[in-house]
Structures are given as C-alpha cells and as structure tokens.
Amino acid sequence: MLEHHNPSAPSRDVHLDIEGEVIRIRDLHKTYKMGDIEVDALGGVNVDIQRGEFIAVTGASGSGKSTFMNILGCLDRPTNGSYFLEGQDVSALSSDELAHIRNRKIGFVFQGFNLLHRTSAVENVELPMMYNGFQSKERRQRALEVLKLVGLEERSHHLPNQLSGGQQQRVAIARSLVNRPSLILADEPTGNLDTKTSVEIMELFQNLNEKEGITIVLVTHEPDIAAYAKRQIVFRDGLIISDIRKN
Amino acid sequence: MLVMAFRIALRALARNKLRSFLTMLGIIIGVGAVIAMVAIGEGAKKKVQEQIASLGTNLLVILPGTVTLGGARTGSGGRQTLVASDAKAIMNEVPVVSGASPVVRQVQQVIAGGQNWSTPVQGVAPEFQQIREWQVQEGRFISQADVESTAKIALIGQTVAYNLFGDNDPIGAIIRIKKIPFRVIGILGAKGQSGNGTDQDDVVMVPYTTMMKLVMGVTYIQQIIVAAVSADTTQEANNQITSLLRQRHKIRPGADDDFMIRNLSDIAEAASSSATVMAVLLGSIASVSLLVGGIGIMNIMLVSVTERTREIGIRMAVGARSRDIMLQFIVEAVVMAASGGVIGILVGIGSSNLIKYLAELPTLIRPDIIAISFLVSGTVGIFFGFYPARKAAQLDPIDALRYE
After folding, report:
1. Could you list the mean pLDDT of each consecutive 10-residue stretch along chain A, which spans 247 residues?
2. How far is B343 from chain A (nearest CA, A)?
3. Fold of the A24-245 domain
4. Which letter does DSSP use for residue A5 in this model?
5. What are the sequence ranges of the domains in chain B?
6. Which chain A residue is nearest to residue B396, measuring alpha carbons?
7. A99 and B321 in contact by Cβ < 8 A?
8. pTM higher than 0.80 for the full model?
C-alpha cells in the first residue's frame, strides 16, 4: 500500500532528515516535445523508497518506466514535480551537479553490461573513482574489495572479451558498488544472459540486498525476475498503476 | 586530474597504434620539414658569415663606372676610369686605409712543361697579400721591386700547382702565360671556396704592372681592393676615398662618381639575409604541412568521438562531467600532436644530418626552433582537438548510452 504524505514543497537547499528514506518523489512529470506535439511520458508519479528495499519496476514499452528510471538515475530532469534523493532535492540541479550525484550516490547496471573494451576488470571497476579524486592505490584497493564481493577477485585482470556474460555483469555490478552508492539501478540486467546465469545474477542481487543492505531498483519485463524483488511497481501510460509489497 | 587525463589519453591512443601513428604523420612530416629546412637555411647563413669573417669586414672594392646621365648603370664593365696611381694615392693619402692594391684579372691558358691549365691570372701589388690575409705556403710574395721592374714572376694557387705540377715542387719552374715565360716564385696557401662557389685556389698571381703591360696590354685597372684599418673605420675610409677619387678624376660637385665603392661585408650581409629569407620561406611552406596535420587530427578525433559515443555515455553515467570528457579528448589530441612533434623533431634532426653527409650542404640545428616546433605542435593539438572534444562533452548521456 502506498503511504500518504503531505505534498509539501520545501526549497532545494533544505535537507530533509528523514531516517531510512532514500527517495521521495512527488508529482513527477516529464513532457517531451516532438515537433509540435507534446508527449507526456510521466504524468504525476508519487513514490517513496526506503533504504534496503529491493524493488522491481515493470510495464510495457512506452509505459514510462524507462523515463522514470532515467530521472531516478539523475540522467534526466523532470519537467515538473520534486525528487528528493537522501533528503536533497535533485530535480533542478545543473548537469555538473547531477554528474556528481551519479558518481557518489547512484550505481548503474545495464542490460548490455557497458564495460570499457580492452580495459581490465579491475580498471573497469575503478572507473567511477577516476572522477572523484581517489589516489591510484586507494582505487585499486577498493576495486579489488568489491570484485571480491561479487566473487571475481581471481579474474581482476581479465579483459571483458575474456569473461563470460555473467562474469561481465558481475564486473558491472562491482563497478556500480564501488563508490558506496545510496541506490543501485539495474535496467534489465539479465536480458542478455541465459537462464542459469540469470539466476546467479539475481541471487547475487538478493545477497547484496539482504547481507549488505544495498537498495536496489530493477527494471524488467520478466515476471520470474521480478519475483526476486520484495516490492513491485507497475507503470502504465506514464503513471504507477500498482505498487505492491510482498508478504 | 591532469595526470589521470594524460594516462587515459595514452591508453586510448595505444588501443589503436596504427591509426594514432598515421594521424600523427602529418605533424611528424610538418615539424621534421620545418626543422630540416631551417637547419639548411641556417647552415647557409653561417657559411656566409664565416666567409665574411675570412674575407675581413674591413674590405672595400672600388670598381669603375657608375650611373650614367641617362640613369642606366654602366656596371663594372663601363668606362674604364681607374688607374694604378689611384691605388697608390689612396694608400698614401687616406690615413684610415692600411693597404690598397690594384687588381687586373683575366683568364689565361697557363702552360708548364707538358701540362696546360686554364686559370684566372691576377695582377696585384705587394699590399694584396696583407689585404686579403693570404698566406704564402712556399717561396715569397710579389715585391715592390717586382712591380717596378715588371718582373716576369708568378705565384700559383694550390689548384694550379696540383694540376700543372702534381707532386713536384713548382718553385723555380717556368710557366708560360700568353707565350711569355714566368718563373714561379711561390705557392699560395689554401683559401677554399668563395661565397659564390668559385675555387679561390685556382689562380695565378703576377705583378700588376707585368699583367697590364705584357699580358693584357692595358693602361687601366679593373679594381682597387682596399683594407681599412679596422671594421669601424670602414665607412670613414669609404667617404675619404670617395672625395679623394672625385678630386683626382676631376669630377664636378653635383656630378655622379665615375666609380663605385662596394663594401664586401655588405655584399655578404645581403647574401646572409637572403639566406634567412630562404629559410623563412621554406619554413613557412613546411608549416603548411603542420596545418594539414592538425586537420588530420581533428578528423580522426571526430571519428573517434563518434565511435566512442557509448563509452562517453558510460563515463557520464558513472559521474564524468562535461569538462572531464572535454579534458580527456583535448589531452588525447595534444598527446597525439606533441608526440608527433617530438618524433618530427628527431626526424628533422636526422634528415638535416643526412643532408649534411650526402649533399655536403652545411646545416645548423637551432634549439629555439626545436622548442618552438614542440610548442606549436602542442598548440595545434589543443586548437584542432577543441571542436571534437566539445562535441564529445555535449553528448546527452541517455542518447549516448543507447548508441549502437
């Protein structure tokens, strides 16, 4: 059941200190201009996400879930409404500020892995740290740490073309964790993997969520995959039509 | 931050070494060409300056003839207005002159025993030796007595000695000039090539009186060569000689001189500055190559940015700001250009040394040109890398991530 909050609109400089709340979204709108026509991709979305949640986001294409994920991931800005990430209003930040937020607070996992070619696993994992001033020794140490967490410390110097699909996705997951983000966003992470590997990856996500308390929001159109999550949000025509917590 | 961008750039360039090298080629050729061309120009200039030094910066040459009433220059082939006594008067009456010698010269067939050799025969005064600082390797130079007695004696240059006598000692031998027998009294020291490439050792020197009377049958002289006391007094000597000769030749005030005084070092300076002009011209042409190289870099960087759209999207997704992306690509362009510059410098130095050995042209590498070339190639990198870097930085991360 959705909780009801008073939709107050505090200024962006005030940090709301509500413990455990990672995301608070109120009346989120996104409108695209396609020539003369205006398309409402999102038409007033309200969502709260607590720390440690594991959420599956589903919906048909064009339902607005991708738009929602882009805004959630601070890759895009809403046309209207507010998005508080760990108490900070990020809905109207500049591109540079959003980049900073992405670097520190958000980890991405993509369907196509999106690792850098001809770059070793450990260097791929280090990539986010290149943009926040870590020294090379600290970077290496932290990168190996997270690779261990995903079970790939033995292959840290392999190149992506020397790794299987599942292994590449693990590297990508390690990369997403390296800066200790508030939230992992996964876009069809098992889309390019076979059933067996998909299970491995989903179990890894579950592990990270339960043992390490990492908040995960995952987009999928497969019910089997969505079942791994503890909460399922369904989009249709730019709105959330269902938001169900398990048990 | 910059160090990291540098490392990322090196990594990116190493990923496709052949492409990076081919892109650098324009800069390499441009810089190499500039360095080699300027080295050739500088070498030529230095050689000329050495010749100025060897000729002496205090030398004046007086030639007959000047601009006629009609405005045309008669040049040294015009009216013969110089006589031997002019030279004597100059020496006696101009205090800042240390020596003056008449010069009469004609190419003649010189025969010795079974050999003959066509060479310039020069009639000079004893002062000539000191004026030109010409050593005598063996024997003695022309004396005043020789001049007064129109003696049939001669000194021969190294080239003539070699061609007429080989390894034999020519002192005391008889050579025939225009069927007149001359006794060889000395061998001139080596002087090498002159500024315009003639062999200064290919010469026979005789007393000017002998040359005028017996060989050429003339009463005028072709030149007077004068040495001023020092380089500083050269202009003063010039002025005093001018007024002396005007007086002697009875030239009315306001009328033109019937002679020309040339300062040898001016001629050499002119040659030197034309060598500089040549160097600058060649260098400019070579610089066009640098421009083309820069365009090549921009072209490849644009392709690279398009190819790496996805990569740029990933970087932005994990937190790279626009300026991080911009810096990355500009550094890549600069590293390519500067590496090309360094290789080009080495190629330029190598080829100018090669030219020195093979073509026997003098070359002189200038360290400031090397430094400038390096800086210019770096600047080319920044300038031509800017547009592609900006394109990269302005990509939208969402679109970039979706790029196939």
Report:
1. 42 51 91 86 91 93 90 92 91 91 94 91 93 84 93 92 94 95 94 94 94 92 92 93 87
2. 26
3. Rossmann fold (3.40.50)
4. -
5. 2-51+270-402, 82-248
6. A75
7. yes
8. no
